[in-house]
Amino acid sequence: MKLIVFGATGMVGKMIVQQALYMGYQVKAFGRNVYTTDYLQTENLELVQGALFSEAEVFDAIQGCDAVLSAIGGAADGTDKARTLGMKNIIKQMQKLPVKRIVAIGGMGVLNASENSLLIDEKDYPKQYIPVGKEHQKAYELLKESNLNWTFVCPPDIINAGPTGDFTTAADYPPAANNYKINAGDLAMFMLNELKKNEYVKHRVGISN
Fold first, then answer.
1. In sequence order, what are the residues at sequence separation of 6 or more whose Cβ sits closer than 8 angstroms to the Cβ of residue 58?
2. Homologous superfamily of 2-208
3. Distance between CA 123 and CA 134 in Å, rounded?
4. What ranges make up the beta strands (E) of the chain?
5. pTM higher than 0.85 for the full model?
6. Percent of the chain at pLDDT above 90?
7. How much of the chain is helix, strand and coil, in % rounded to 5?
8. Environment class of 43 (CB within 10 Å of its CB; exposed 0-12, middle 13-18, buried 19+)
9. What are phi and psi of 22, to 5 degrees?
């Protein structure tokens, strides 16, 4: 299987690339600064320097791949539109190609608080997380409206640590046993495992260590 990773130079993106290579996947790592990142050197890795908002560059990068993994990040104050405009462009280019599977990272606020409301809409939701949460919500809505086979992983605080394999997940809601943190390595591990298992197609996913 050949994968493309957007946001490949970020904390989670780098772990996705490394784990995917260890698993034997062919990997395209897409980003503005991919040549400055210390990836595992292997013939299965292709570095693609490009702009997330460029239709031609994103189309060319996705072409020939079997699935897309998105770990797009950015500022948390709502001024950075990479999560929404980047996702919009990725979806648009995927829909021109026979590439329909995408696993992407969002935020915990997009999970359900109840059948009729999201966590981000609750009165006690931390105000400092609302701007970035709204960007995650827009990205989720774009995926939901598409014809793609999407999975939107909605983590709590992401810790810069490797995989343990010890984490819990739930569809559309936070997991019952929620410690409000997840290792970046475990988040990467879940995303890659989901490509094989397809347990949460067209679902958001709550996750926690």
1. 30, 50, 52, 89, 90, 93
2. NAD(P)-binding Rossmann-like Domain (3.40.50.720)
3. 15
4. 2-6, 26-31, 45-49, 67-70, 101-105, 112-114, 117-118, 149-154, 157-159, 168-171, 181-183, 203-208
5. yes
6. 82
7. 35, 25, 40
8. exposed
9. -60, -30
Whether the Cβ atoms of residue 103 and residue 4 lie closer than 8 Å to each other: no
The per-residue pLDDT for 129 is 86
Residue with tokens 């040549």: 35
- Please report, for the chain, how many H helices and E strands are present, in that order: 5, 12
Let me know the angle formed at the C-alpha of 132 by 128 and 137, rounded to the nearest 5 degrees.
125
Q: What are the tokens at 133? A: 């949460």
Name the least confident of 1-15, 120-134, 152-166, 176-190. 120-134
User: Which residue ranges make up each domain of the chain?
Assistant: 2-208
